[in-house]
Write a structure and sequence with these properties.
The structure is a single chain. With 180 residues, this protein is an alpha+beta fold. The chain has two domains: 76 residues, ACT domain (Alpha-Beta Plaits, 2-Layer Sandwich), CATH 3.30.70; 72 residues, 2-Layer Sandwich (Alpha-Beta Plaits). Helices cover 26% and strands 38% of the residues. It has four helices and eleven strands, in the order βαββαββαββαββββ. Strands 5, 6, 7, 8 and 9 form a five-stranded antiparallel β-sheet that branches. Strands 2-3-1-4 form a four-stranded antiparallel β-sheet, covered by helices on one side. The chain has a two-stranded antiparallel ribbon with strand order 10-11. A hairpin with a 5-residue loop joins strand 10 and strand 11. It is elongated. The C terminus is likely disordered.
Length: 180
């Protein structure tokens, strides 16, 4: 698996262009999340791709062919903070409700909605933690689940490229010329 932080212009159609690039090159996207950054007009995509190091270099090279791509960091081998968010609706009445609530506490999750026959649980953490919670909740009846996908950020105060990681960083100056 290779993980990329891709900074793009926040404009309509950018997500489609990036996803189409992966489709055309026959790369399978395991996880894709997109959100605003601290810079107005720039969004960040965290993309996890099922490929090896050689494929990762190919992904970076192809991403830079897209005009709206501002910067690509391969954060696969740098220390990172990884989180996933899940909302899980579980059937729970009577004694089962008490047991589910205890499990929620053990996993440091939260109950965000209660109805007479179900609970909605919000869980954040690593993918493994959420997978584990999901498995212990299945016997109670998981009615619905949604997950955000992985968000990942390099630890510390510097970007991966400044730490000597396998990152490719290219920016555009005001004239539109590339800089490394």
């Amino acid at each position: 698996m290779q993980t990329f932080a891709v900074y793009v212009d926040n404009k309509p159609g950018v997500l489609n262009r990036v996803a189409s690039l992966f489709r055309r090159r026959a790369f399978n996207i395991e996880s894709l999340t997109v959100g605003h950054t601290e810079t107005p007009g720039i969004s960040r995509m965290t993309i996890v791709v099922d490929t090896d190091e050689r494929g990762g270099r190919l992904v970076v090279a192809n991403l830079y062919k897209l005009i709206p791509v501002r910067r690509v960091d391969n954060i696969t081998d740098v220390p990172t903070i990884v989180r996933d968010l899940a909302l899980i609706k579980v059937s729970a009445t009577g004694d089962a409700r008490t047991q589910v609530m205890q499990l929620v506490d053990v996993y440091r999750a939260r109950i965000v909605d209660v109805s007479p026959e179900s609970l909605v649980i919000e869980a954040t953490g690593t993918e493994d933690k959420i997978d584990s919670l999901l498995e212990v909740l299945r016997p109670y009846g998981v009615g619905e689940m949604v997950r955000t996908g992985r968000v990942e950020m390099a630890r510390g105060t510097t970007t991966p490229a400044r730490r000597g990681a396998r990152a490719t960083v290219v920016g555009l100056d005001d004239a539109g010329a590339g800089s490394v």
